[in-house]
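Please go through the protein record below and see whether the fold suits the sequence. Record follows.
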Amino acid sequence: MATTNDLKNGMVLKLEGGQLWSVVEFQHVKPGKGPAFVRTKLKNVLSGKTVDKTFNAGVKVETAVVDRRGMQFSYKDGSDFVFMDSETFDQIYITPETVGDAANYLLEGFEAVVAMYEGNPLYIELPAAVELTIEYTEPGVQGDRSTGGSKPAKLETGYEIGVPLFITTGEKIKVDTRSGEYLGRVTG
């Protein structure tokens, strides 16, 4: 248990019928009249839906202990993703629904943070950017700027993103895992 005065970004709260909500942002407000309150933006850990919620200051809220572990993506078994705990070497099977968009950037051997609650995986956290190789993209046509200077490219994971015209098949690029945007070439 904690109070609304103890809230921190990333803290996971157990609200309304045991649902888990992660604190995205919070703000303590002391109006000139009336009691102080805490304005929060909460993200549902399972569905990803965000809501704004206001609590009275000092109200008790139930916190959930979420275990965040470094794990390595091993392989895909059917539709499930198999991760290995970097410390205990235990293997864990995670459904595609839990992996979500992270599947677009996962290669064997990739490190990720798996958030667990009571032994169940909740979500996968990837680094902000990953380095992936372009599996295939059309050669850029000199002078063709009608598309705004970008073209589709298929990454080695099978995911397709937009890249600048000068990028070629086989190049290694940096990709933002939150937006799927091209961030630049990887040199060296």
Helices lie at 96-99. The longest helix spans residues 96-99. The CA atoms of residues 9 and 23 lie 5 Å apart.
